[in-house]
Fold this sequence. Notes:
heterodimer; A: mainly alpha; de novo design (two linked rop proteins); 7 helices; 0% strand; rod-shaped; B: mainly alpha; Zincin-like; 4-stranded mixed β-sheet; 12 helices; 4 strands
Amino acid sequence: xxxxxxxxxxxxxxxxxxxxxxxxxxxxxxxxxxxxxxxxxxxxxxxxxxxxxxxxxxxxxxxxxxxxxxxxxxxxxxxxxxxxxxxxxxxxxxxxxxxxxxxxxxxxxxxxxxxxxxxxxxxxxxxxxxxxxxxxxxxxxxxxxxxxxxxxxxxxxxxxxxxxxxxxxxxxxxxxxxxxxxxx
Amino acid sequence: xxxxxxxxxxxxxxxxxxxxxxxxxxxxxxxxxxxxxxxxxxxxxxxxxxxxxxxxxxxxxxxxxxxxxxxxxxxxxxxxxxxxxxxxxxxxxxxxxxxxxxxxxxxxxxxxxxxxxxxxxxxxxxxxxxxxxxxxxxxxxxxxxxxxxxxxxxxxxxxxxxxxxxxxxxxxxxxxxxxxxxxxxxxxxxxxxxxxxxxxxxxxxxxxxxxxxxxxxxxxxxxxxxxxxxxxxxxxxxxxxxxxxxxxxxxxxxxxxxxxxxxxxxxxxxxxxxxxxxxxxxxxxxxxxxxxxxxxxxxxxxxxxxxxxxxxxxxxxx
Lengths: 184, 318
């Protein structure tokens, strides 16, 4: 009788320890995703803060290309106002597209291309784009880790018990793309 | 065996193999300690009556502590020691913005703090990373590697080095070194005590003599085997850093091209020596890389062709 009690108590202790351990590691994974997300945000903010200067620099040489400026400014505003990861991903892609046409316009103005200020902005912007891509990669890796834990047994049982939810990858989905386009 | 081809598979399989080697190494260390302790006479019936003599276990403890202290020093100050020995000079962002940006951007992707960046004034092509943890990490490039490699190749090399940092390879190798050091010291003590005959003739019970012979053989072979295991771990960590590096750049060809360029350059790196060779991305003591299977066991790095083959396997399957 005595030894049976000890076995039962030991099993209960092991289960409780396992529960605590799994719960804590799920929390850690979720916090990592959030931290990684704030890193993307930092880079996106840095990117959008470079845009007004860039637009000003180009305006100095190519005043009448208003359509392009509007497009860039709109895309920037959409990015600043976007909330969820997929929304931001779409807005970021939009901005990339708008910037492409801005740089295409800039091609036609040799004086602009030669200006130090413009060159520096261009370089900084391309570095920021690399940083956005890098932080997005880190974020997606963390989301993958979390989602794997939420879907694989046995951690999935505990995740269900405490209603953990899967996180979105930083990726533009088709529906989100449509949503944003309507607003334009 | 399951097909191993994506970078994730390579990472998983190398991590698993490291743990397997470490497990075998731990068991091996315990066995060696047991045999040599028995050789010293600990645990034999006669020993029980001789309280006060420094027994086998005392020697084992002493070896472990000695090896522990020596390796802790080299682990804790790994960055300072290695960087000092190799004559590396720290650089700031303004000194070389291109390299700084490559490191910075890959660190963001890896989720690591930005390490200190150093340059070694040497035209040989090589690079290494060190430091006890990511916060104290340092990455060093030779001038030659910065000149000869293009951006994609440098990104491949940097991702490999940052993976060493992220995988805590300085710590892994320090733990391995403690085990190797313990076995080496213990074997050395045992052989010396045999030489001076302090544990010789008077211990003549049958079991003791048998253990004495086994212990002599173990004391001769164990340090060599331990070194071979250490080198096997080192090679495993190189493969792992290649695979984790690919997960960062998502471009295996960059690192593969870099390895080709580095290995085809026959210039040896003067500041590297046998103590620091294992840190570099490619063995810096060129011309000594053995090709045969037996000699291959003594290499700190896997053969370049094998590493490139593994990288090509990951191509397009990340």
